[in-house]
Design a protein that fits this description.
Elements (H helix, E strand, L loop, with lengths): L6 H8 L19 H13 L20 H16 L3 H11 L16 H4 L3 H10 L2 H13 L9 H8 L12 H16 L2 H18 L17 H15 L9 H18 L6 E2 L9 E2 H17 L4 H16 L11 E2 L8 H5 L3 E2 L3 H18 L2
Helix pairs in contact: 2-3, 2-16, 3-4, 3-6, 3-16, 6-7, 6-9, 7-9, 9-10, 9-11, 10-12, 11-12, 11-13, 13-14, 13-16
Length: 378
């Protein structure tokens, strides 16, 4: 149910079909500004205990910091920096401190793409505030993703022998997880190997799983364009391209794949700004985590000039305002698809639980808020 609504926001949304260029598309109505929304979602994160895979109401308690928490943490740090909110940054860093001591067992092991992305958080803290222990911890997560363990399986060794991460699975989720930690390592060190190997990995995934229309099946065994799965690819390509040097040999292929995906996504956006749980299925329900990731990817594209502003800025604006209408009075985003494994069954996707306050949506809306704040300051 859409809870955070107003006549002003509804009017703004109805006008989104009119091309909005330059700064006009960033002129959001009261209650929908990036700073208002970013403050609400970041502060909500700060008072939310660690979740089990993003769900604050999960029956089982978490045993380690799972990736939705890590990526929400990262988004909150980006947002705090974008808004010069040093108090928020202090609180986000203070939240990390126990992981060096009494909560150290909550640090994920360095054995999986969903675990290793945790290293992005200490690296961001290091880049913003310093602290060698943050750098060392984050870099261990980045480096271990390419350091073949002694007990590696044959398939893992085969990927490593070709220069890819031994953690490669060719799952659509991976292309945000891998590229984010490797991009953070590149930003921290300036060493090209991190960003170059992330780009090489991305091209391999694109060659393996991108469909002719630019979208991605959940897997070859599940030929459905699931929104959040596609969201990881969209956001991953945008994040990688924003840091990838112009002379990287893989950049043209990634850019072409990104633009192809954005074109198809634009065609499937709903009139209310949302994308559906199954992107191309008119009967599917509006899903917020995928929508937030698509919106983020388009904001980045317009900001960096990869996408035509007159064509895509209204799409990004409509996505943002649509998302805002799904925030409830408790500062939680509604209509978030629960964790979803692969299954060759349309009803499997159509009947997924819709979680309230799941961090799979809180993370990308913070990424969006940070980018929109920075965009407004250009």
């Amino acid at each position: 149910m859409k809870i955070f609504q107003s006549a002003t926001i509804a009017l703004a949304l109805s006008c989104c079909s009119i091309p909005a260029v330059a700064e006009s598309w960033l002129d959001f109505p009261q209650g929908a500004t990036p700073s208002e929304i970013g403050d609400r979602i970041a502060n909500k994160y700060l008072i939310t205990p660690h979740t089990r895979f993003g769900n604050p109401r999960a029956e089982k308690a978490p045993t380690y910091v799972t990736y939705p928490d890590a990526l929400t943490w990262l988004g909150a740090l980006w947002y705090a920096q974008a808004t010069d909110n040093s108090v928020m940054t202090d609180r986000l860093i203070k939240r990390f401190e126990p992981l060096f001591s009494e909560q150290k067992d909550f640090l994920p092991k360095m054995v999986h793409v969903d675990y290793n992305v945790m290293g992005s958080v200490p690296l961001e803290i290091y880049m913003q505030r310093g602290g060698e222990r943050y750098r060392e911890l984050g870099m261990r997560y980045a480096d271990s993703q390419w350091e073949l363990p002694t007990d590696a399986k044959p398939e893992q060794k085969a990927y490593a022998d070709k220069g890819y991460s031994w953690q490669t699975r060719v799952w659509i989720d991976d292309m945000f997880m891998i590229t984010t930690i490797q991009s953070q390592a590149y930003r921290t060190t300036g060493d090209r190997k991190y960003i170059d190997r992330a780009a090489k990995e991305m091209v391999m995934y694109l060659n393996e799983i991108q469909r002719p229309n630019g979208l991605f099946y959940h897997s070859p065994e599940a030929p459905f364009f699931w929104a959040r799965g596609n969201g990881w690819m969209a956001a991953g390509m945008a994040e990688l391209l924003s840091m990838l040097p112009d002379d990287n040999r893989d950049r043209p292929a990634i850019m072409a794949a990104y633009k192809k995906m954005m074109k198809t996504l634009k065609e499937h956006q709903g009139d209310d700004g949302l994308w559906r749980q199954l992107i191309d299925d008119r009967e599917a329900w509006n899903e917020t985590s995928g929508t937030a990731m698509f919106t983020y990817a388009m904001i980045k594209g317009v900001k960096h000039g990869w996408l035509d502003e007159a064509e895509y800025a209204p799409v990004a604006r409509k996505g943002w305002i649509g998302l805002v209408s799904y925030i409830n009075a408790d500062d939680e985003i509604t209509e978030v698809c629960e964790g979803t494994n692969i299954k060759n069954d349309r009803n499997h996707y159509m009947n997924r639980k819709r979680i309230v306050g799941d961090l799979h949506a809180h993370a990308p809306i913070l990424w969006c808020a940070a980018e929109l704040v920075k965009f407004n300051r250009k």
